[in-house]
Amino acid sequence: MRISTASFYTASLPGIQSQQSAIARLNQQIASNQNYLAPKDNPVKTNQIMALADGIAMRNQYLANIDKAGLVLSEENTVLSEMRSAVSSAKSLLSQSSSMSDQSLRSQMAQQLGDLYTHIKDLANAKDSNGNYIFAGYKSDTLPYDHSQVYPGTAASASTSYGGDAGVRAIEIDSGRTLAVSDVLSNIFHIGDTPDLLQAIDQAAIDLANPGVSQPGLAGNLQGYLDVVNTALDRLSVTVNDVVGRQVVLDEAKNVQKTLKLNDENALGNIQELDQAAAIVELQQRQVALQASMQAFSKVSGLSLFSYL
Amino acid sequence: MSTNILSISLAALSAAQAGIRTTQQNISNVNTPGFRRQQVNYSNSTPFYSGMVTAGSGVKVDGVSRIYDRFLENQVLLSQAQLSRYDAYATYTSQVDSLLGNSYTGLSTGLNDFFGAANEVANDPTSVAARQMLLTSGENLAGRINNLNDVMAGMQSGMNNQMSAIADQVSNYAKHVAQLSDQIALQEGTTGQTANDLRDMRDQVAAEINKLVNVTSFTQQDGTYGLYIGSGQPLVVGNTASTMVMKTDPVDPRQQVPALVVNGVQIPLNTTLITGGQLGGMLSFREEVLNPAQQDLARMAASFAMAFNTQHRAGFDQDGAAGSNFFANLAVPQTGTTPAINLDLVDDRQLIPGNYQLSFDGSNYTLVNGQDASVIGTYASLGSLNTALATRGFQLSAAPSGAGAWNINFDDYPRQMTVAIDDVRKVAAASTTGSPGDNTNALALAGLQTDPVMNGGTASFKTFYSQVSSRVANQAHAADASQKAYDVLTKQAYEASQSVSGVNLDEEAANLIRYQQAYQAAAKAMQISSSLFDEILAIAR
Question: Most Cβ neighbours (<10 Å): which of A208, B124, B466, B510?
Fold first, then answer.
């Protein structure tokens, strides 16, 4: 075939240029450790990469949500466990006191009950690290359990007013799956009953301190208060167990999210990350080829019949 | 007889000289684009009778002709037009591809961050830090949308400038072709010989035009040469050149479209007529890649703002007040005293293109198409207005509190989008008033991350966005493949055509020797005939 002199030169060029652009591309790939430099390099894989990256971002969000839920629940668990031991102390004080007739012992018991009352009320009105009431439902800025202690006074203790609402806060721990991270204690505190929990403990202390309330009337009164405390303790235990149950659920959810995230990350790495060894070998091959085509060009381009005229 | 002996050698001498001159011309133009190698056409002169014998009377130069293959050259032109088209198409599409797919300029990261912040508000509805983060990442997301829109709008105006430069260049080339046709007619009329070099030049200018916009050439029976665009729109006919201009697109005033001015009449050109060359590539890119991507961005921004605003208005802020629009309202009052109206998304697929003016006189609503100011309808109730609006993808969430007029511009929203609230207390995380610990609405806002809002309720925002960027990636990938294919085809066609018409210096060197030897031989023959004459003169002396 006849070859024109101009195309003899231009034909050598694409070979050299294509090697050079392949080398430039390999350099970029190796430097960034990425298989694909732009989505157009492989639209299908890029779509997968985007979906996996989005999935990982979601998993990270759920893991952050789970951690937050874990913190809130463990804070609540601490308060509720403390409350349970205080209510349980009140229970044993009340059962010990029911048969007492010695006034000095009764006054000591009243004193201890008065302290427990304060402790239990403080726990019920506990705030979280942001200054929100833990047990006020959605009304986290309102004092939930409002009761004025009458002891050591002698008047009748009034009932507790509840300032919170029935709202239970939830956190999303997986797509479309939420978990409650707060509890309403109004049934534990017998809100609406007479006497309610705080009222019963306060009144018990008042009765014990009052020598005018004598046996067997005292034992009868205390039995009534003890019934309220007992029910409260039972309900409190149920709530504490429920909180622990939710903590277990969180642990499981966390493992699930971590596993799924790991799977996504592995898949992403496989698609996105460059096989460095293969890329470096290819780079070597291309460099050799480029040198060869450059040398061939310089040798062949020296040939001309005019050199012999 | 003796003069005949001399003149036969003289003709041979000048024939060899013609050969050498042509070889020189070929050597000189070895690198001239469009030059076709030339050859001298020789024939033997008319013989004459001398007594009983017929004797030859030497050589005759008939002319110089170009060696080329019209079919191969047409192949070059056809694939070159497509190569130029895909060069432009692939270059521009790659830019949009990188823009949408890049983690810094694209929307994927912005969407993830924003919904991450919404989740944090749900986790801790009274946290000032979480609420602040939602506002900041909302601004960031809106800023990314603004930025994408700016870059694409910049591409639109950059393309308008580029196309106008191309139109000027095509017009100048066309004028040049017309001038060359004039010169060719003049020269060929005077000499009776083909004007080889002028014709080469004209074909070369036509080839340059063909890189900008694909043209076909046609020579009429009477020799009139013409260049035509598309289905016969005349760019050049004989010595008359048309002008290519860019004018504002009547359908979309943001863009310019080419037109051909033929004898003062404008013929609009579109992608059906311009199917190749750089201009063809740019027009197709705009039609197939850029405009749809811009529309999808506008659709997504408007839908996103409406859906998020509607959910945000359903909640209550930290002070117990009903939530306001989180992102800038799409319905913009035409005057400051106009009461606000709020929009709800019905079906994103109907949204774009859309640009409306809505007015309410206290009893009737009037809806006007913002594009051409035509009245779409007048409605006596909110219900009938909303029925009409629903077919356009949106509705009013409630009747306005009084008379007023509003602009609703979906196309322009990506440019305007911003966060409308500046106070962290105004983030409406609660579903009930006066409940700062209530995170129900924040959960619903965070849930919009995965809710299928787009594509008529089948795709989440992120899915929609990845569909858009994936479509552009596929277009860029296909354009790259076509560009590579036409690059190879064009090179092959060019090599094939050059193998016929290109100059080969070795061949010219051989020709040079051939003509030199012919010249020497003719000179020798002349010397011998001259010495014969001397012999006769010597006898007579």
Answer: A208
Contact A43 B505 (CB under 8 A): no
Write the residue in B123, B480, B503 that is nearest to A171 by C-beta. B123
Beta pairing partners, B219: B225
Distance of alpha carbon B187 from alpha carbon B189, whole angstroms: 5
User: Which value, to the nearest 10 degrees, does the dihedral of the CA atoms of residues B79, B85, B86, B87 take?
Assistant: 100
CA-closest candidate to residue A190, choices A233, A148, A222: A233
Residues of chain B positioned with their CB less than 8 A from the CB of A304: 505-506, 509
**Nearest to residue B254, comparing CAs of B286, B278, B277, B279?**
B286
Name the average pLDDT for chain A.
92
One-letter amino acid for residue A255 of the chain: N
Contact A40 B108 (CB under 8 A): no
CA-nearest of B372, B357, B355 to B410 is B355
Q: Supply A202's token pair.
A: 């306060």
The two tokens of residue A268 are: 């992403």
Q: Looking at residue B3, what is its pLDDT?
A: 54
Read off the pLDDT of residues B353-384 as tens digits, 9 standing for 90 and up.
778 999 999 999 999 998 888 999 999 999 99
Contacts of A11 in chain B (CB under 8 A): 491, 495
Residues of B in contact with A64 (CB under 8 A): 116, 119-120, 123
Tens-digit pLDDT profile for residues A237-289: 999 999 999 999 999 999 999 999 999 999 999 999 999 999 999 999 999 99
Minimum distance, in Å, between the CA of residue A119 and any CA atom of chain B: 24
What element of type H or E holds B353? none
Residue A176 backbone class (left: φ over 0; alpha: ψ -120 to 50; beta: rest): left
Pair of tokens at residue A307: 């050199």
Query: Residue A130's closest chain B neighbor by CA?
Result: B127
Give me B449's structure tokens.
């991350």
The answer to whether the bond into A152 is cis (omega within 30° of 0) is yes
Residue with tokens 């990938």: B477
- B207-232 confidence digits (pLDDT tens): 999 999 999 999 999 889 999 998 89
Nearest to B276 by CA among B96, B93, B89, B92: B89
Which among B116, B120, B498 has the least Cβ separation from residue A6?
B498
For A207, B86, B89, B467, B474, the CA distances from B481, given in Å and listed in that order, are 94, 9, 11, 21, 11
Number of H helices, E strands in chain A: 6, 4
ipTM of the complex, rounded to two decimals: 0.85
* Listed residue (A132, A130, A120) closest to A89, CA to CA: A120
**DSSP state letter for B142:** H
Rounded to an integer, the average pLDDT of A17-21 is 91
Question: How far B377 CA sits from the closest chain A CA (Å)?
Answer: 42
- Report the amino acid identity of residue B234: P
Structure tokens at A180: 């409650």
CA distance B243 to B266: 9
Q: How far is it, in rounded angstroms, from Cα B114 to Cα B106?
A: 14
Is residue B512 within 8 A of residue A13, CB to CB? The reply is no
Please name the residue of chain A whose CA is at the shortest distance from the CA of residue B505: A5
Please name the member of A43, A133, A305 whose beta carbon is closest to the beta carbon of B509: A305
Computed on alpha carbons and rounded to an integer, the radius of gyration of chain B in Å comes to: 38
Residue A302 CA, distance from chain mean position: 74
Cα of B450 to nearest chain A Cα, Å = 8
